[in-house]
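ESCALATION

Customer reports they have been waiting on this structure for their group meeting. Please prioritize. Original submission:
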Amino acid sequence: MHVETDTGIVIEYEAFGDASDTAILLVMGFGAQQLGWDADFCRLLADRGRYVIRYDNRDCGLSTRFHDHPVALGEFIGAVTSGDIDRARAMAPYSLVDMAADGVSLLDGLGIERAHVVGSSMGGMIAQKMAIEFPDRVLSLTSIMSTTGEPDYGQSTPEAQQVLFTPRPADRDGYIAAAERDLVWASRRYRDPATLRSLAAASYDRAYYPPGVPRQLAAMILDGSRADALRTLDLPTLVIHGLDDTLIDPSGGRRTAELVPDAQLLLLEDMGHDRPRPLWPRLVDAISDHTEA
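Update from on-call: job pushed to the front of the queue and completed.
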């Protein structure tokens, strides 16, 4: 299913549960399709009396792709690291605000006035941006394994950063095998290479599209610090972060909770930059409690 926004962007989505229940909008992270929100996880939330919506961000999955705006990853990173932000901005065809607006436009298309917004990793940044830019549309914010855009918080380890910026092979078998590289930032206790390979296979077969990755990265990096804006938020906020996370250090979650007035902070042992199935009961409980009408 999909919705076309007023700006012509097509957003692919899937919904779980009863449309008459309070809506939860699940926002996925960098380069990941809506499949990253496991369907069983979505059903568990729906069973708690929520209308759960997962979707593909622009430039990913089956949503609109920006073919006409190629971004060379190495050139973009070079511009950023050299401090030439104007050159870097000229490469980026859209911003994190545009990505946040896509989520709001999806709610428009579904006739939903307000929703609880739950974002993971870059999706947490987009969710924060929704709360900042569209506060009248957001009932509550849940920011999972994300950060504030400040350079002193939430940094990756060198090993995790190397994996993040190393493209996977283009052939199906190589792409699936390379998914095990993500174990570098996964939960140490609940390491599950089979699940990583299964998700990679499903993602490859559904909508393999690596050219969108540099553009999403550009939007994320160029958004900069959200610290001042986060201090102004006036809505229920839950911050969840795994203590095993090496892709976005737990300091990113701690800092987010520190900045947002009255935010709750849930730090989970044995969770990395993932949502391992054994921790789903705790995650579902926390999100369900936070999104009580």
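Sent to customer with the following note: The chain has a mean pLDDT of 96.
Escalation resolved.
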